Amino acid sequence: MQPKSDRAAWLKGGDAQCNLQPERCSDDQRRFVLLGAPGVGKGTQAELLAERFGICPLSTGDIFRASKALSAGCECSPAMLRALDHMNAGELVPDETVLSLIRERAKCLRCGGGFMLDGFPRTIAQAEALEKILEENGVKLDAVLSYELPLEQIIARLSGRRSCPQCKKVYHLESRPPKKAGVCDHCGAALFLRDDDRPEAIRVRMRAYEQSTTPLVNFYRQKGLLISINAGSTPVKTFEQTLAAIENAAKR
Ligand code: AP5
User: Fold this and answer.
1) Distance CA 195, CA 202 (A)
2) What pLDDT, in 10s, does the model give residues 206-216?
């Protein structure tokens, strides 16, 4: 198992220092985008892939949730406070806000440790901007992993989810319960239910996904980067399918 980065530069901004800093860019590090509806299991797979390949899971949702924790002490900019209102309602945050956060963190994209983008890009405009940022930084995506699952299973996953505010580990009351109820196995913090996992916010998130994010499937298919994965099995089986699909795609 690879050591774990604290993702400080991603969560706090490009000037922050991570506890693990690869010296230089290596050609064999992996660079993935994870695509799929809210609750399909992207974060869960990101955690497993990170352990396997030693690459950082970079979630835009985690940046917003980390800023929300800070906003209690009024450290958020007005743009971030508006972004958090969108997030709580289940709506997408405007592209300009998301892209300015990504540009601030371009260092994470050229990091020699590789990356897994989870929840970004989410619109065609974001995907086109990402292409440009990667080109400017001289790096390329290896693959876009697209997870698929019927809506009723997604809703069951979201309503049972519990998250750790500190180490970001994700649990499920039935399929992935913590050893002690309400407490993170990894760091001992109290688990919480996300505001946007309320039923009314879930409906808005699903609509936003259908309208804005599903076009990315064709966008990346046309670029020969898309790998589709059925997300209906257990986390470990889905992970095994993911590894096999990555290996098969590399042989093509
Ligand atoms: P974000 O944090 O990215 O949320 P999301 O995409 O909606 O995805 P989720 O984190 O809800 O689900 P997931 O697929 O990671 O599933 P998980 O692994 O947790 O974004 C939140 C918000 O921020 C957005 O709505 C938006 O407002 C804003 N935002 C973020 N990025 C943005 C962007 N680029 N542009 C605009 N706005 C942006 O799994 C779910 C549950 O299921 C867990 O409990 C888990 O334990 C369980 N589970 C997982 N896999 C399995 C399995 N195989 N079997 C059984 N249970 C499973």
Assistant:
1) 10
2) 999 999 999 99
Q: Give the DSSP H/E element, type plus range, for residue 203.
A: helix 199-208
Q: How many CB atoms lie within 10 A of CB 75?
A: 10
Regarding the beta carbon of 196 and ligand 1, being less than 6 Å apart is answered: yes
Atom of ligand 1 nearest to the CA of 205: 25
**Phi, psi dihedral angles at 177 (to 5 degrees):** -75, 150
Instruction: Output the CA 23–ligand 1 centroid distance in Å.
Output: 31
Catalytic (active-site) positions: 42, 122, 161, 194, 205
**Closest by alpha carbon to 108, among 2, 38, 20?**
20
Please write the tens of the pLDDT for every residue from 152-181.
888 888 988 999 988 888 999 998 999 999
pLDDT digits (tens, 9 = 90+) for 65-94: 888 777 666 667 888 888 889 998 899 999
Better-predicted residue by pLDDT, 240 or 18: 240
**Distance of alpha carbon 77 from alpha carbon 85, whole angstroms:** 13
